[in-house]
Amino acid sequence: MSTNSMAISVEIAELVEQYRAADDRSRHRWVDRILRLMLPHFRNWAPTLCRISGDVYGNHRDDVISVISERTLEVLSEALIPGKHEKVANWYSYLNGISRYAALAYFNSSEVTAASGMVALQRKQRHVARVREDLRKKLGREPEPAEIIDSANEQMRARRSNPEKQGVLVELADLDNVLPVADIADHDRAVEDDDYVLSPIEGRELVTAIIDACYLRSDQLGKAADVWVGDLYAEPPALGTVTEIARTLHIRQDRAADLLADVRVISQQVCEDEYGVALPV
């Protein structure tokens, strides 16, 4: 956890104690202060929580922020009950954890009709974007759509036993929302300084590459990777923990620890293969 996150956690703990000690008429003031303090963080968490549940484009972002806020209000009400939430040592991490639960519950509820292929679409588009970028470097020009499709599908056939049945093969329509993205990334790279092992733009691309590589192994590994490094470039930046992985995926902590170990190995391979960076994991 970053220094900023630790400071926020201490501040929340102090506000919660004042909230508990306040009379009924003034408690709402402390609730307002806590929510105002946490709202920027709810906004930062929401895109990752949407992505984990398959909402690639963040269509439910505002709803997720509302759900997180409502769940935080419930926790504060529960905090008035003797013995409830008294053992919370880190309020920032605790609220982050319950936010993940709340978002998952929201996406699994009857209120949301999420497209079942959303996560698969996200992975396919990222794969196409990487293939296009590789071809641009290799050919020294903008690749033709047919070249992108052939190369992307060749890679998928090498990786998957039955790519046709799994729906991972690329078609012409899949390029529509992908091609402009690389142009934006190229522009961003052009104005970055070189005083980094990896520039912030490359760092974000690396995070995406790690998550994608894990998703190629399994959905569970992909989700574990998203929890682990998905907020690495949020404000404040944060790495997910074994406990957060277990909570988000609804699995035992020992299973979460095994998944994280596998994710670390994959991330090391991605760093070395894609960027030539040795990552201590």
Describe this structure in words.
This protein is mostly helical and 281 residues long. It has 2 domains: 3-107, no CATH class; 118-275, no CATH class. It contains 12 helices and no strands. The chain has helices spanning 3-21, 27-52, 61-78, 91-107, 118-139, 145-159, 163-166, 179-190, 200-217, 219-229, 242-249, 253-275. α4 packs parallel to α11 (242-249). Residues 113-119 and 179-197 have low confidence and may be disordered.
Map the helices and strands.
Blueprint: H1 3-21, H2 27-52, H3 61-78, H4 91-107, H5 118-139, H6 145-159, H7 163-166, H8 179-190, H9 200-217, H10 219-229, H11 242-249, H12 253-275
> What is the strand tally?
0
How far apart the termini lie comes to 17 Å
Mean pLDDT: 78
- How many domains, in number, for the residues? 2
Radius of gyration: 21 Å
Main β-sheet description: none
Strand % is under 5%
Outline the low-pLDDT stretches.
113-119, 179-197
Number of helices: 12
Counting helices, strands and paired strands, the structural category is: mainly alpha
**Level of helix content?**
55-70%
Overall spatial form = elongated
Give helix and strand order, one letter per element, not per position.
Answer: HHHHHHHHHHHH
